[in-house]
Design goal:
Layout (H helix, E strand, L loop, with lengths): L1 H14 L18 E14 L5 E14 L2 E12 L4 E12 L2 E12 L2 E14 L2 E9 L8 E15 L17
Antiparallel strand pairs: 1-2, 1-8, 2-3, 3-4, 4-5, 5-6, 6-7, 7-8
Length: 177
Amino acid sequence: MKLLMIVSALSLLWLSPCAAHATDDSVTVGYQPAWFLLGGATAGASFGSTENGGYVGAELSAARMYRGWWYGLFGDAMYDFGSGTPSASLGPEFGYWFLGVDGGLGIRGYDSAVEFGPQIRGLLTFGLFSLYYRQTYWPRATNNRNVQQVGMLLKIPLVGGRGSGALPPDNLGRRRQ
């Protein structure tokens, strides 16, 4: 029994690591938090007003991901074919894994005037592809005050940090330079 304990103790000492420390030659594997820029296209249907129809547009986001959480700023611009109006929105975005929300200021050109109103959007994200529902309220509008949208969004990473999780990690299994 003593021999078994001595062999076990010596095996553990032999298997234990020597003094470990990080150097410039260390290997980084997995997700590293970083800021990145995403851009893409959006399309869907507008409803809840007298001028229902489809819309198309583009979106740009600056976001940071960290341990499943993501947050940043977004801006989008679109054209609604039902109302014949361009609109845009700008504001913060945040979420956890595949659930997200953004909101902020909506801006649209309507009846030769510029209108402003609050908007909020809930997102269900599957990688680069998202489905969403957006509600925008135009307080000074005489018609189409509450515009709702159901849409889809495809955003791809344009610029990202090393190992950000948005771009293929260029340091996976390689030594840093």
